[in-house]
Records
---
Amino acid sequence: MTQDPIVDIRGLNHWFGSGDARKQALFDVEMTLPRGSFTVLMGPSGSGKTTVLTLVGCLRGVQDGSVRLMGQELRGADAETLTGLRQRLGFIFQAHNLHESLTAIQNVVMGVQVRPGVPDALARQAAARALGLVGLADRLDYLPANLSGGQKQRVAVARALVGNPALVLADEPTAALDKDSAADVVDLLKRLGAERGTTTLLVTHDNRILDRADRILTLEDGRIVSVEDRT
Amino acid sequence: MSRLLQRLFGRLPIGWLQLTHKRGRFAAALAGVAFANVLVFVQLGLMNSMAAATLKPYGFFQADIMISAGDANALAEGGNVARQWMLQALADPEVAEGLSLFVGTVPWDRGETDIALTTFGIDPGRPGFIAPGLTEDLHLLSVQDAAILDRLARGLPPDEAAAIRPQTPLRFEAQDRTLTALATFAGGGGFGGDGFMLVSDQTFLSLFPSRSSAAPDHILLRLRPGADVPAAIARLRGLVSDQSLRIRSYGDAAAEDLRYQQTQRPTGVIFGFGVLIGVLVGLVIVYQVLSADVADHMREYATFKAMGYGPRFFLGIVLEEALVLGLLGFLPGLAIGTAILTLMGKVTTLPLTMTPGMAVTVFLGTVGFSALSGIIATRRLAAADPADLF
């Protein structure tokens, strides 16, 4: 039996600006992300990778075409629906974007508490477990200022994964990391994703991590120009 | 504190953690809120003091109705009233008795300091008009040039005042006459005078030769027990042909005097503006702190937005910060405000004290303006666009 894909994009066009300044960023993009897949989206700067990520992540409105996320059509969806969907996603940013005033475990707790009704003790327990999985069990009460770049990004990974998201959207998560740390983070994403059935869409320029992808999509000038299936 | 707030809010106390993360800025913010509180406390203290000082002399007397000249906005202001209207008022069956009340300022030259005594001239044979605490010594005023002196008068040494008794009177020169203080009562300095003095109407007329017994400053009336005061006032307005006179209940006269002092006199208006400025300063300080804090954490807020946190969550954080600033800024503000008012009260002998009512009012006001500042500051959160994070 074939499961519905987590993400199903059909005929997606997107523009920025208006009038004479209007510029089309995406042209008739089609993309499907099966459940549990690890997909890398590549392409030069300005090719539209980030636009795809923000549209799938419910952070921009879909203007033309169709984006179905977990079966829900995003085009025309109201703000409440989009916010609800975002609670089921995991985001990892190029900059870790950890809250400087919160300790590592508190930052990760934020990834659980977004869903109402989770008791404090349970949230803290899940956050500690997630930090243990990324190898930071001994850094629970460290503030971000006292963690290395790789450790911060691992906290961000833990924060993205702690709520068992259906889809992780990662934007250049290894850009600021050295080779070993980058490999650690991607391996971690892939391993945890495989264990939990989490789908990952990772945008990157980093060739070092391509061999870990199930699929590689290449975007150029707003168009998908190649799809490489490596499973 | 963090755990307490976490239990209270049912989530991480992010506002508290953000504020306390930068301790120097947090301390400066609390100092700012405390400063605004002190401003408001001092101005409120002065306003309350003015109210207390205005109403104080009304407490020396007991009456149901007061008749005053049309321009007599305050007890010691305005023209005279013809005594004939008192006689006319006594024709009303409900009016039991009347009293001519004379008011003037007697300067007491004490060498280095002058004491301005607001002096009331009354008929000592009518104790029913005098407040219970003063009636025991009232008979002493029957002696010419006798006086009952305010022992709390500004410039009068307490030990000197404490020694005043009928057996050990204090004689002093004023208005080219020698007055004899035979007893004392508790008055206190106000904004218009340094203290009070009670004398007989005859002594008063000796002190103010230009004044006439036929033209007191006010007429006080007492009604028979159970009489309807508004009905009596309405009848008196019909009886008294001079329509310019103000015929009011005694309580209304005091309230109108207070309203006049607060809204018409420069001091009252200035104190009122002082309170307003204190509130505005507090509002601006809290807004600046919260607004800068929101700007500093824009990326974090955008991240939370991306994660699915909604507007109520962000409003909660900013309001949490506003309340923390309001509450923790209030406590030092209360302590410093109390100390300043106590000190000012000692120096000026004005009734400047921190009252529970003031503390509660300022506390609620602080929490209110902090919350308002927080609500305004959350408008900046609209700029936190999670799409910009990528």
Note: The interface with chain A takes residues 6, 10-12, 14, 17-18, 20-21, 297, 299-300, 302-304, 306-310, 386-387, 389-390 of chain B (CB under 8 Å).
---
Amino acid sequence: MNTEISGIILTYLLTLAIAIPLGRYIARVFKGEKTWLDFMAPVERFIFRFSGIDTKKEMNWKQHMFALLTINALWLFYAFFCLLFQSHLPLNPDGNPNQTPDLAFNTAISFLVNCNLQDYSGESGATYFTQHFVFMFLHFVSAATGIAALIVLFRALKDKVTDKLGNYWEYFVKSITRILLPIAFVIAVILAFNGMPTSYKGKDTLITMQGDTAHISRGPAAALVAIKHLGTNGGGWFGANSAHPLENPNYLTNTVELVAQLIIPMGLVFALGFYLNKKKFAYVIFGVMTIGMLMFMIPTINAELHGNPAIAKMGVSQPTGAMEGKEVRFGPANSAYWSIMTTVTSTGSVNSMHDSAMPVSGLMMMGGMMVNCFYGGCGVGFLNFYIFIIIAVFISGLMVGRTPEFFGRKIEAREMKIASLIALLHPFIILVGTAISSYVLVHMPNADWAVKPSTWLNSPGYHGFSEMLYQYSSSAANNGSGFEGLADNNIFWNVSAGFVMILGRFLPIIGPVAIAGILANKKFIPESAGTLKSDTSTFGIMIFAVILIIAALSFFPSLALGPIAEHFSLK
Amino acid sequence: MKTYLLPSIKITIILLVILAGLYPLAIAGIGKFTPGHGDGETISYKGKVVGYANIGQKFTKDEYFWSRPSAVDYKADASGGSNKGPSNPDYLKDVEKRIQDFLKRNPGVTRAEIPAELVTASGSGLDPDLSPAGAKVQVLRIAKTRNLTVEQVNKIIDDNTEQPLLGLFGPTKVNVLKLNVALDELKK
């Protein structure tokens, strides 16, 4: 077999082999059972004592959300001001300047919400201080926020639970001390031994073999790159992200980074099964997610391996596939695999430039972000999926003429309203954003802004439209990858994408937790012959259909104008 | 509000110390024991550092193996790709121009022998590698410029070819900088 294909199969199997035991471990952590990382307990006790937190105080879902929102608001201000004044802060060996207010606004939100859209380049737009004390810090805590919110939902799904859903701070801190930090540490060490820089030295200057002067940006990247993937964040150290040879030096580091970005989203699905003791239900969900992922993956790999037809016509050979925007050490098959895994989860790191990928690949990447729950982000992946479950249960109930119920609780009008709002919010912010930007581009091409709208796009025609659609899809899905040809570091894009990111983060966290919290307060109805079985393939197909219908109906017209049209015009 | 804000502030402070302070310092400490001592691995020739093993550099002279085209002209403090879409007419013109330049400077090579990687820009603009095919197609030119035999140049490529991970996973590649150091070492 082709070594490029066997490479990605190995990567997937390795991911699965780690995700299943990790899921069991995560369930044990949050059930409060013994684990081999119990030596972290004194650290946790110290954190809680220092912060004046009593973890025995249980919270209801609203208190959980208050805690979550308060600390997130605090981080937003902290991040914004750090970026605004970064040149005056320590650890700036390259002498990089402050971020402009609109850029700092965008960047602070972007890292806060686990999106990591980067309208700056790491080499020149951030300092070692902001990379570590803002970006890497937010990598950890935004991932922990997602996990903690999901654990609230897990707890609410338990039988015979009422409104007492555990302590938010405990979930949050344990997500870091028991899951993210230990695993990130191991990954960072592997990366360091494979040539990723770890020291705090600034740029190096040298004379190359043929006599040019080269300035080489460096910096303590390994620690950040580890959590950037583990936390499905994606905001990289260097401008080229994980395509950069210091941020992803070889095939082994590439495999590690790929495995890291999937084990928690996958592991949390298995954790649900172990936590609720409903393993079959977890397998059904995992099956639906995997089939959805493959639906995006296979056409992408196929398109990239075939190469660009326009380049084939010029008569050169494409022995490995399409190479524009790709690195030789990864090759097109692996770049395709990465581009789909990074878009079905909310990672958004890249090891090839998505803007230069084939139109079919672009279509599939956008599809991944538009669905946003085939594995999905740290914690939030399943929260999004839960919305589709509620809708599927409701529709199934209507089809057989029974009051829909899920895990022993009746789903009624109020829960359905929340679920529908959240399901529609995602297409709404993506499509409205794209519509506004298209309008501005066409009707105000020479508006007197720092960057004129007429120069926003790096490619004309259908592909240009795709660049805008991709940007808002990535923002709303809190993904963070980009069709980077878009000139996005200006006030229009910084601000509009900033709002889309923040809407796409917190409402889809609050909605599912609210539904689960409300359901947990309802009377528990024991399973009977008429109960809809949630752990069957029929139910899986039902969820899959709901996801496809909602995503296809909402997004098909816009996709037809972008990547689909480009595909048929590319000969 | 106070119920949530005060713990939020305190927990943020302590987590900043642990996550942004201690954790990367620990990694930096361990990094001292890695091959490049955490500063990035360099390659020296005649006792002088001529580049980083992992960072591609510009090679355009006839006597050296050329690196792939770079959208950022191999500026290692401003990495990036072209971000041109596959159907972009300007981009396709650039590719055609690169093909013609390549043919002009590599007599004896036909269009069909040029692998796409030599006329397309990499993702980082700093791709340090070529596929063996991308190196072999340059052998004629280098042999002629340096008065070497084709076998000598081919041998350098074979000696520097890096097999897939464990022989099974990922592409086969050659590091351009290492190739060119080997070429210069042959000269003396």
Note: Chain B has two domains: 1-39, 49-187.
